[in-house]
Amino acid sequence: MSGNELNDLIGAVLTAHRDDPHRLWTELSRAGLTRLTGSVDGGGSGAGWAESAALLRAAAAHGAELPVVEHDLLAGWLCERAGLPVDDRRRSAAVLDAHGRARRVGWAAAADRLTLLHPVGDGWAVSDVDAADVAITPGRNRADAPRDDLAADPAALHGVSVDPGTVEQFVLRGALARAVSITGALDQILVEVLEHTTTRTQFGRPLAQFQVIQHAVADLAAENALARAAVDAAVAAIPGGEPHADFDPQAAFRIAVARSVTGHAASIAVRTGHQLLGAIGTTREHRLHRFTRPILAWRNEFGSVAHWDTVVAQTARAAGSQGLWPLITG
């Protein structure tokens, strides 16, 4: 299924079920989209990162907050990595600290099962548990999407041991997924700005004919294009686009770049979008906040903008004068 087809499908489902989240998730599940990257043998659709990116962008462009990342790209991946059975019950995933706690976990309170990556001795293990067995404190992020705190009893978790690198891979997967979603919302912010500036008149002519407006729109479009290019490069760096493949150092660097670029682009898009739309863009009735609020939240999940800026700088410095160009060009 192409990106355009996914966008049309998401749009049709949202139009019919926007006010019924349960029905929305059911319809997406029937279409094979809630476990898009799960293995066919495990009941998934067997798609890759490219298809998942198309789904995440389509959802973001329609202002849809869905637990696809938590359910499919994180929980489903963790279960398959650990050799645990996966079914269609809704899942969320988290990395627990030594005390069995995790903060701001997406959609945990709405999940049937929680797939937990937790420390065991000097290593790590994966446990897939009933959500009712974990203490969950509901919360919301700045986009009003569910982000909940967890507290599990470490002694009650009897998981399957996994490679220590699973923790880093978990963060990279979440980071890339959020970068993809940001680009979908950035696309829509640009659409909203173009529509407003070309139809709104001031002093007898459209806003888009004023040079200062043209410069602002051009800056927004440039940031949008740069963010999309960085994210596309990160997705393309995944070996064969295979959804369960580990990210090698080159792919990890591209993900760090994508997160840095999309984080900075989000700041510019929010500022420019609200400046150009003026008072109407700050109202709840206008669509703009459905895209600006989520990207401000997403850019700080699975690592802040400052964190990923630091990763990019440290990786480039470590590559040295001889290795920097190959690192950049791949």
What is the strand and helix layout of this fold?
Layout: H1 3-17, H2 21-30, H3 49-61, H4 68-82, E1 91-95, E2 101-106, E3 113-120, E4 123-130, E5 135-137, E6 147-151, E7 160-162, H5 166-199, E8 201-202, E9 205-206, H6 211-236, H7 249-277, H8 289-298, H9 305-329
Parallel strand pairs: 1-3
Antiparallel strand pairs: 2-6, 3-4, 4-7, 5-6, 8-9
Task: Give an overview in words.
Belongs to the acyl-CoA dehydrogenase family. Keywords: FAD, Flavoprotein, Oxidoreductase. InterPro entries: AcylCo_DH-like_C (IPR036250), AcylCo_DH/oxidase_C (IPR009075), AcylCoA_DH/ox_N_sf (IPR037069), AcylCoA_DH/oxidase_NM_dom_sf (IPR009100). The chain has helices at 3-17, 21-30, 49-61, 68-82, 166-199, 211-236, 249-277, 289-298, 305-329; strands at 91-95, 101-106, 113-120, 123-130, 135-137, 147-151, 160-162, 201-202, 205-206. It is of the alpha+beta class. It has 3 domains: 1-64, no CATH class; 80-162, Butyryl-CoA Dehydrogenase, subunit A, domain 2, CATH 2.40.110.10; 166-329, Butyryl-CoA Dehydrogenase, subunit A, domain 3 (Up-down Bundle), CATH 1.20.140. The strands form 3 sheets. Strands 1-3-4-7 form a 4-stranded mixed beta sheet, covered by helices on one side. α5 (166-199) runs antiparallel to α6 and α6 (211-236) runs antiparallel to α7. The radius of gyration is 20 Å and the shape is globular. The relative contact order is 0.10.
